[in-house]
C-alpha cells in the first residue's frame, strides 16, 4: 500500500497540514489519515450527550429514586422508617416479601430464591413485571443537547413520530429531540458529573467505531461527501500516556451488519450526514450485545487539530436500548448505579417518540443524542490487505 | 591512508606476487590470531541449531564492550567474570537438563545405554563426542572424550541415572572455553614457507560466523576435516553453499546490528510526554524494519549497497504505522511498503531506527546524527568534545532567539573549541531535522520552518532525501563498509600489512557493483582472510585454554 500524500494534501475543510511532535507544550496537529480519497477516523469519545445544566432545574427536588428506595416506598408506611435503616437490598426485598401484599414482593422473592441469579427472573431483567412508585424524568423544554430529528418546531406527531416536548440547545438551537435524555437525565450516573466512563471501553478495545469521509466533491473545502461508519475489527492501541494516538491502522469488521454508508455535506468546516441505520458492535468478556440505532445522523465540526467533534442523533428501539444500557449491568450494577429499572423502563415507553406504529399510533423508539469525538486513523478494508501483500490473501 | 600503510601495501603487493597468490589478490600479512567470546546471539543460535529451537536458554550474558566501533572486535577483549561464569553455569545446566530430558531424549541420544541406572561408557562417548564436535567447532581429541566420559560415568554412578550423567558431562562441555570462545588456531602455510594460516576448523568457524552468525554445521565441519577448505574448489563450494542459504540473512542482519550499534536500543528511552507514540514495541519494530530493509535489499535483491541510503522500499507493521503516519493493512506481522517518490522519507537515514537512536530523550540531535553518519557510515573519527564545553545555548530550547536546532548550534559554534568538530557534524545532522527525536516527521520546530540544507564533503543538499543521495555517491561510504565488514569478519582492526589487500577488496567491491553478497564471497574465498602473521601469542593463548588439540598452533 502506498501512502497518499496526506501530509501535504489539503483535505477536509479545516484539516491542517504538517505534524510537529516537539516540544511538548506545542499544540500538536494530527495530519489527515487518508487512504485513497477517504479520510479515516476512530472515535475516541462516544457517550450520552449530557448538557452541563443545573440538576435542580432538570430534576426539581433531586434525582430519581434508586431501586432500593423504590422498594422501601412500596412498604407499608409503618415499615418504611425501619427499612430505610437497612442497607442491604436483599434484606429490604425480604421485608417487602414479608408484608405479603405488594405485587412486587412476590416477584422479588423469586429473585432472592433463584439459584441462577443471572438467568433467573429479576427486577432489572424483567422490568415490566415489577411496580415502581415514582420515577422522575426531565419534563422541561429548556436546555439539552441533540438534533432536530423530526423536522418539527413543536414536536407534534408526524407519520413516523409521536408527540413530544422539544428542548433548546445551549447555543439557542431550537426544537431539539432527545427523549432518551428525559428518561435518563435524572439518574445521577448518567449526568455529566456522574461516574460512567464508557470511553475506557474504547481504550480497552471493547468496541471500536471507525468513520470515513471522502474529499468534498468539487475540489474545495466545502461540498458533498461520501460517509461510512464501521465497527472496527481491531482494538485500538494506546500511546505511552494511555491515549489513543492519531494514525493507527484499524480494520473494519468483516460483518456487513456493522457497516453503514451514507452521504453528507461539509459547509464552513461542519459535516452533516444523511440518516442511516447503524449497529455498533460491542464485545467484552461477558457482554456481546450490539447497540442498534436507526436513522442516525451526525453533525461534526472539523477541528484545527485534525480531530472532529460533534453529535450523533437518531432513534433507538426502547427494548434494544434497555438491553444494551441496563441489562448487561445485571441487578448488582443497577443497584450500585441507583437505577430504578421498572421506573426507567416505563418512562422510556411513555417518552417514546420514534418508529410510530401506524396501526396503533404508539411509538417504540426514543430520540437519542450522543457526543462524539474522533481522531484521524487509517481505516483498513480487506482489499487493502490483499493489495499490501501483493494480492495474496 | 597513511604513508606507513602505503609502504606496507607496496611491500606486500610485491611479496604477494613473488609468493604465488591468486593473480589478482595481493598478499595479506594477516595479524595475530584472536580469541573471541561468543555473543549472546551466537550462543543462543548455536544451542538452537544443535539441540533444537525449543531449548530455553535462561541466564544473563555479560555485555561485550564495543571496540573499533564493533562488538565483534570488543569480543576479542571480552573476558568472563566470576559472576559471568556463574551465569554460564546456570545456562549450561539448564540446556543440558532439557537436551536429555524425556521430551528430547529420543532425538538427542542416538544410542541405547545398557542400563538406565548404570554407566555406559561407549554410549556416553558417542553422545559426548558428537555434541562436543558441534560445540567446540572441531572434533574432540581422544583425551578430551575420555575426560568427558569419566565425568559422565562418575555422575551416573552418583545419581543412579545414565541420563543424569550425560547431562552433567554435557554441561561441562558447555562451560569450556572451547565452546564459549572462538579460537583462531593456525598451522604452517604449506604454500608459503615461513608463514601461517588458520587451520581448517578455524576457517570453518570464521566462515560460518561471518555468513550465518552461527557455529559451523556438521557439513562444514566435515569439509574442514577432509581438508576441503584448504583447496580452492572445496572452499568455493562451501562458501557458495553458505551464501545460497536463507541463513545468510541472519549473518547480514548480525553485521548491520553491530555496525549500527543496535544494542543501544536496549536502553533507549524517550520522554513519554514529548514522544508518547514511542514505546518498546516501536523501538523493537524500528530495529527490525531496518534489518528487514537491509536483508531484502542487499541479500534477496542483491542490490547496490549504496541504495540503502536512498531506497524507498521498506517494511511496515502496525506498531510503526502511527510513527510514520502511514496505513498498515496487516494486523499482525510485516508488509512491504514503498514511500511515494515525492515523500520526504527514503533511505536508512530517514528510518526511525536511525533518527530515534541518534537523538536525545526529549529532542532531536543534529550533532549525534552527524557524528553517527561520520563515524558509522563514513568511518571518519569525530574527536570527543573538550571537557569544559558549555552546552547552555544548545540545550536551552526555550530561548526565543534560537528557536531551532540550527539556530542554537550556530550560536554554539561561535566558541572556537567547538567549531572544528561541529563543522563536520552539524551540516549533515541538521539535514535530518525534519525528523524529531522519536523519528516522527515535522516541518517546523517551535513554529519556525526547518531548514534542512547543508553539504556533505562539498556536495550541497536541501532535503534529507538529497543527503541520502550525497551519501550514496560518496566513495567514503563504500570504503567504510569494506573496512567495517573486514573488522567484523576478522575480529580486529586491519594492520598496515593488509592495506594493499583491503584496497583490492575495495576495487573488487566496486567492480561487482557494490553488492554485499559478492563482497562477502570475495572475502570468504580469499587467501588473505585466513592469513595469520604471528603464532607466538596464539600458542600462549591456547596454552591458557587447556586445549587438547592444536599441537600446530
Describe what you observe in this structure.
The complex is a heterodimer of chains A (393) and B (553). Chain A is α+β, with helices and mostly antiparallel strands and 393 residues long. Chain A has two domains: 6-23 and 31-50 and 144-388, no CATH class; 67-129, no CATH class. Chain A contains eleven helices and twelve strands. Chain A has helices at 55-58, 67-73, 77-84, 89-99, 103-113, 179-184, 199-203, 318-325, 330-336, 341-351, 382-388, and strands at residues 34-35, 38-48, 209-214, 223-231, 248-251, 259-267, 270-273, 276-280, 291-302, 308-317, 354-356, 363-380. In chain A, strands 2-3-4-6-7-9-10-12 form an eight-stranded antiparallel beta barrel. The longest helix of chain A has 11 residues, at 89-99. The radius of gyration of chain A is 23 Å and the shape is globular. Mean pLDDT of chain A is 83; it is low at 1-26. Chain B is mainly alpha-helical and 553 residues long. Chain B has helices at 3-19, 40-51, 71-77, 82-99, 105-108, 121-136, 142-159, 162-174, 177-180, 200-211, 218-225, 232-244, 248-259, 280-300, 321-324, 352-357, 366-377, 392-395, 405-412, 416-429, 464-472, 475-490, 499-511, 516-524, 535-544, and strands at residues 35-37, 181-183, 186-188, 196-198, 313-316, 335-338, 444-445, 448-449, 454-456, 459-461, 531-532. In chain B, strands 3-4-11 form a three-stranded antiparallel beta sheet. In chain B, strand 3 (186-188) and strand 4 (196-198) form a beta hairpin. In chain B, helix 6 (121-136) crosses helix 7, helix 7 (142-159) packs across helix 8 and helix 10 crosses helix 13. The radius of gyration of chain B is 26 Å and the shape is globular. The model of chain B is unreliable at 1-21 and 536-553 (pLDDT under 50). The interface between A and B is large, with 38 and 47 residues.
Amino acid at each position: 500500500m502506498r501512502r497518499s500524500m496526506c501530509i501535504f494534501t489539503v483535505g477536509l475543510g479545516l484539516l491542517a497540514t504538517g505534524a510537529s511532535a516537539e516540544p511538548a507544550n506545542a499544540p500538536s496537529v494530527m495530519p489527515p489519515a487518508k487512504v485513497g480519497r477517504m479520510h479515516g477516523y476512530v472515535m475516541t469519545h462516544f457517550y450520552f450527550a449530557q448538557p452541563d445544566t443545573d440538576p435542580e432545574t432538570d430534576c426539581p427536588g433531586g434525582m430519581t429514586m434508586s431501586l432500593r428506595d423504590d422498594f422501601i416506598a412500596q412498604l407499608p408506611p409503618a415499615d418504611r422508617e425501619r427499612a430505610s435503616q437497612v442497607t442491604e437490598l436483599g434484606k429490604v426485598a425480604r421485608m417487602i416479601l414479608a408484608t405479603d401484599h405488594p405485587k412486587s414482593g412476590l416477584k422479588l422473592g423469586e429473585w432472592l430464591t433463584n439459584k441462577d441469579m443471572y438467568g433467573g427472573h429479576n427486577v432489572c431483567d424483567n422490568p415490566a413485571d415489577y411496580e415502581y412508585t415514582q420515577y422522575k424524568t426531565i419534563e422541561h423544554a429548556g436546555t439539552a443537547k441533540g438534533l432536530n430529528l423530526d423536522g418539527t418546531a413543536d414536536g407534534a406527531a408526524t407519520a413516523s413520530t409521536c408527540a413530544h416536548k422539544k428542548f433548546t440547545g445551549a447555543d439557542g438551537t431550537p426544537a431539539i429531540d432527545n427523549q432518551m435524555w428525559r428518561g435518563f437525565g435524572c439518574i445521577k450516573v448518567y449526568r455529566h458529573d456522574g461516574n460512567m466512563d464508557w470511553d475506557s471501553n474504547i481504550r480497552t478495545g471493547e468496541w471500536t467505531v471507525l468513520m470515513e469521509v471522502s474529499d468534498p466533491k468539487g475540489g474545495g473545502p466545502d461540498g458533498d461527501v461520501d460517509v461510512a461508519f464501521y465497527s472496527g475489527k481491531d482494538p485500538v492501541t494506546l500511546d505511552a500516556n494511555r491515549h489513543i494516538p492519531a494514525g493507527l491502522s484499524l480494520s473494519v469488521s468483516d460483518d456487513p451488519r456493522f457497516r453503514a454508508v451514507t452521504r453528507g455535506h461539509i459547509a464552513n468546516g461542519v459535516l452533516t450526514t444523511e440518516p442511516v441505520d447503524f449497529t455498533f458492535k460491542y464485545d467484552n468478556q461477558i457482554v456481546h450485545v450490539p447497540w442498534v440505532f436507526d436513522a442516525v445522523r451526525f453533525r461534526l465540526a472539523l477541528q484545527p487539530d485534525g480531530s472532529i467533534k460533534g453529535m450523533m442523533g437518531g432513534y433507538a428501539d426502547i427494548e434494544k436500548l434497555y438491553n444494551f444500557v441496563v441489562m448487561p449491568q445485571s441487578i448488582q450494577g443497577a443497584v450500585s448505579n441507583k437505577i430504578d429499572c421498572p421506573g426507567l423502563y416505563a418512562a422510556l415507553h411513555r417518552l417514546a417518540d420514534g418508529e410510530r406504529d401506524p396501526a396503533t399510533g404508539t411509538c417504540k423508539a426514543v430520540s437519542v443524542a450522543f457526543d462524539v469525538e474522533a481522531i484521524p486513523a487509517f481505516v483498513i478494508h480487506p482489499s487493502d490487505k490483499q493489495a499490501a501483500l501483493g494480492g495474496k490473501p | 591512508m597513511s604513508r606507513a600503510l602505503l609502504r606496507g601495501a607496496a611491500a606486500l603487493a610485491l611479496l604477494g606476487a613473488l609468493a604465488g597468490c591468486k593473480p589478482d589478490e595481493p598478499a595479506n600479512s594477516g595479524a595475530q590470531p584472536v580469541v573471541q567470546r561468543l555473543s549472546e546471539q551466537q550462543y543462543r543460535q548455536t544451542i538452537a541449531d544443535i539441540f533444537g529451537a525449543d531449548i530455553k536458554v535462561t541466564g544473563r550474558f555479560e555485555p561485550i564492550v564495543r571496540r573499533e566501533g564493533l562488538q565483534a572486535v570488543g569480543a576479542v577483549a571480552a573476558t568472563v567474570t566470576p559472576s559471568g561464569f556463574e551465569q554460564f553455569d546456570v545456562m549450561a545446566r539448564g540446556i543440558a537438563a532439557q537436551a536429555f530430558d524425556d521430551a528430547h531424549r529420543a532425538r538427542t541420544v542416538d544410542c541405547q545405554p545398557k542400563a538406565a541406572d548404570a554407566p555406559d561408557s561407549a554410549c556416553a562417548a558417542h553422545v559426548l563426542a558428537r555434541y562436543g564436535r558441534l560445540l567446540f567447532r572441531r572434533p574432540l581429541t581422544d583425551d578430551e572424550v575420555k575426560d568427558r566420559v569419566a565425568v559422565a560415568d562418575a555422575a551416573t554412578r552418583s545419581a543412579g541415572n545414565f541420563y543424569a550423567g550425560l547431562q552433567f558431562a554435557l554441561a561441562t562441555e558447555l562451560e569450556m572455553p572451547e565452546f564459549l570462545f572462538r579460537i583462531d588456531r593456525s598451522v604452517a602455510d604449506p604454500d608459503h614457507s615461513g608463514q601461517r594460516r588458520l587451520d581448517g576448523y578455524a576457517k570453518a568457524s570464521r566462515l560460518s560466523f561471518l555468513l550465518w552468525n552461527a557455529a559451523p554445521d556438521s557439513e562444514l565441519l566435515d569439509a574442514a576435516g577432509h581438508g576441503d577448505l584448504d583447496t580452492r574448489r572445496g572452499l568455493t563450494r562451501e562458501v557458495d553453499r553458505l551464501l545460497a542459504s536463507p541463513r545468510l540473512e541472519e549473518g547480514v542482519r548480525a553485521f548491520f546490528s553491530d555496525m549500527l550499534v543496535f544494542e543501544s536500543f536496549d536502553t533507549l528511552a524517550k520522554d513519554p510526554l514529548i514522544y508518547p507514540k514511542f514505546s518498546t514495541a516501536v523501538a523493537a519494530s524500528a530495529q527490525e524494519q531496518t534489518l528487514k530493509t537491509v536483508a531484502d535489499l542487499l541479500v534477496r535483491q542483491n542490490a547496490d549497497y549504496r541504495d540503502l541510503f536512498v531506497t524507498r522500499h521498506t517494511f511496515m507493521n502496525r506498531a510503526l504505522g502511527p510513527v510514520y503516519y502511514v496505513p498498515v493493512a496487516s494486523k499482525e506481522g510485516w508488509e512491504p511498503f514503498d514511500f511515494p517518490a515525492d515523500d520526504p522519507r527514503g533511505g536508512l537515514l530517514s528510518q526511525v531506527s536511525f533518527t530515534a537512536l541518534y537523538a536525545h530523550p526529549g529532542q532531536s540531535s543534529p550533532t549525534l546524527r552527524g557524528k553517527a553518519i561520520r563515524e558509522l557510515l563514513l568511518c571518519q573519527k569525530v574527536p570527543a568534545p573538550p571537557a569544559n564545553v558549555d552546552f547552555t545555548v544548545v540545550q536551552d530550547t526555550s530561548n526565543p532567539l534560537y528557536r531551532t536546532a540550527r539556530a542554537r548550534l550556530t550560536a554554539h559554534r561561535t566558541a572556537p573549541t567547538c567549531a572544528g568538530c561541529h563543522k563536520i557534524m552539524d551540516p549533515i545532522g541538521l539535514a535530518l531535522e525534519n525528523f524529531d527525536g522519536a523519528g516522527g516527521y515535522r516541518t517546523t520546530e517551535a513554529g519556525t520552518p526547518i531548514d534542512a540544507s547543508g553539504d556533505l564533503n562539498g556536495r550541497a543538499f536541501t532535503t534529507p532525501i538529497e543527503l541520502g543521495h550525497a551519501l550514496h555517491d560518496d566513495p567514503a561510504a563504500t570504503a567504510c563498509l569494506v573496512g567495517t565488514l573486514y573488522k567484523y569478519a576478522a575480529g580486529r582492526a586491519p594492520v598496515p600489512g593488509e592495506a594493499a589487500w583491503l584496497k583490492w577488496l575495495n576495487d573488487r567491491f566496486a567492480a561487482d557493483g557494490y553488492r554485499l553478497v559478492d563482497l562477502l564471497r570475495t572475502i570468504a574465498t580469499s587467501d588473505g582472510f585466513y592469513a595469520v602473521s604471528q603464532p607466538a601469542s596464539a600458542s600462549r593463548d591456547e596454552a591458557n585454554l587447556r586445549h587438547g588439540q592444536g599441537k600446530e598452533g
